[in-house]
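Checked the freezer inventory, then went back to the computational side. Two predictions to log before the end of the day. The first one is the construct we discussed on Monday; recording sequence and tokens without edits.
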Amino acid sequence: MVNKDFFKALEDLETEKKINKETFIETLEMALTSAYKKTYGEAKSAMVKLYPERNTIKIYSYKTVVEEPEDTDKEISLADAKEIKKSYKVGDMVAVEETTKDFGRIAAQTAKQVVMQKLREMERQNAISELAEKEDELLTTIVKRIEGDNVYVQIAGSHTEGVLMKNDQIPGDKFNIGDRVKVYVKKIRDSFKGPQIQVSRSNVGFIRKLFDLEVPEVASGEVKIKNIARDPGKRAKVAVYTDRPNVDAIGACVGNRGSRINTIVNELNGEKIDLVEYSEDPLEYIARALSPAKVLSVETNDSLNMSQVIVPDDKLSLAIGKSGQNVRLAAKLTGWKIDVKPESYLKPADSAKEETEYELTELSDDTSFDLSDLEELEPIAGDAELEEIGELEDLGDEE
């Protein structure tokens, strides 16, 4: 019912498609057994076996030895069993080879269906396995089609598409068919239509991988990224540090005349980036995270995970940022709730707290980069009521 060409085809599938032949044969045996039972009766206790080494297929029905059989599909008489093998006794299970010649056509049709189904299934699994290695990676893709707000890109080296949904795009992103686009592989899911790859440009992982790509010291591990807080298309804060005394973490990220950071900013459509040098001292870390604003002092409440920051009156709006953006990102970056107060908020009695405060005499404000250099935010009205400033907290976890 099957010839050696069939088994040769199984070997070719194993070689070309990386499909395990033994697994394939087990699946095929089960399918052929099911087809046989549907044709000759579900009551039969039958099994179809394939023998690749002999290029043959056999069908066995299993019957219990009894004195007088009542169900010939499941039972065989002791006398008939002894004709097969003299040692059989009542209660033994006998394998009887069937000689159903007309099963050949059904078997061939079933085998073809199983082969095609298994081939699609295993190709999908292999594709998912290969693509899983690309998760959390930066890829250059080609825009294949645009449907509404969703952009579909082709992953290089495969026929699989990735979907860049609206919330994964950077505000200001514009795409045309055929464009080459860098994306971050956020998640790979299996669906009835095949592997679905979700890619992103707004995820913080996108910035992290851009630093890996553009800053050799980050790629090698000499400079490490501690954390990233991001408002896609507007501003991001990246905390970096190094254990090497002879390496300047921020300088390495900036590059010669800003070449490295400007390449990253270009890819982000001009999104500003504040480079923050990480410190294990939370007072110093919080002060640096509020860059480009100058900070006079910081004090923290560990039990509440809160901090109070004092800034010059004329830098209050810069520290808070438009719509609270600067302080919100600083809170995300550090993991501390931050309450920003102007210097005039301090009273004489507060001078007794000096020993618990971290005094920052100098804070460089040149670690924020965009394509048109730094630009200060417009200051808010100088007579703003303090209660309108309020306590600004971290409004959400890092994306």
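The second is the one RB wanted added to the comparison set:
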Amino acid sequence: MQFTAAQIAQLLGGTVEGDSNASVSRLSKIEEGGPGSLSFLANPAYTQYVYTTTASVVIIGHDFALTAPVSATLVRVADAQGAFAKVLEMYNTIKLDKKGISAQAVISAGATHGTDCYIGPLAFIGENVRIGNNVKIYPQAYIGDNVTLGDHTTVFANVTIYSDCVIGARCIIHSGTVIGSDGFRFATGPDGGAKIPQIGNVVIEDDVEIGANCAIDRATLGSTILRKGVKFDNLIHIAHNVEVGENTYYAAGGVVAGSTRIGKNCMFSGQVGIIGHLKIADGTIIAAQSGISKDTKPGEAYMGSPAFEVQKYRKSYIHFRNLDKLVERVDRLEKASRPRTEGA
């Protein structure tokens, strides 16, 4: 891909300072830019590099005032970071714009797919699978029987989607993720645990992104559900019959036990664990490595393990750090308050 400064300015609604025919074919950080690269300056901490970079084109804000000459052609925009994000999105769209069905893909006779799809080598598509338009399924992905994939969804390499699961439109599922594996349920008894069959499915609504190496278990009965707009980082485990509300974000390493209901617009930091059968209210914020063992209140922030309200946690933590001093103080007070024995 190759673009001129003039084309970039037109795309971003900006203006060119310098050579409007300056050409770029790759993207770079401003401190690492070289000839033929496009970069941007948004963080003041990197201002020095605009004067030394050898990038051919740099995106900067309208209000940025130069204090020395620059060699790069500048494209001035209202929001440099937002404009560069738009360029990244366009670049990624072009890079991932694959089409065509590989002769090495295995597609069952009863499966159907829409227009402009990509199905890579060694991908497996089961019976009665329904694939929408412009869906991309990368090599060695497994799509089980009766699965539905909505329009513009991307399934990267080595993803496994078990039978009967439903994936919405514009979803992104990264490599190594397993959707629809069995929930962890056993009927324990004197002779050991008897496995309880898991005959539900997983339903993922539109505009969901799931990171690498996640596991989303199928329901025992009914559905495990990720509502629209949910965003998962890598290494997250969602157990059977969990429901995650709209636009909830979950950073890496999280675990949610069975049948918990998570509200919408929640934000969970890394390694948050949530026990089963809880109700996590809308707008809940949970700090990293917290363990949630009770229902939460709307809009509250929680911290610790077991977690409680973040302000109370911080106050308690101050006391905890001073625990040695408090113990010494109590010892001194107790010693001073003891009655002296006769002759002592």
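For RB: Residues 100-312 form a domain with the UDP N-Acetylglucosamine Acyltransferase; domain 1 fold (CATH 2.160.10.10). The first helix runs from residue 5 to 12. Let me know if you want it refolded.
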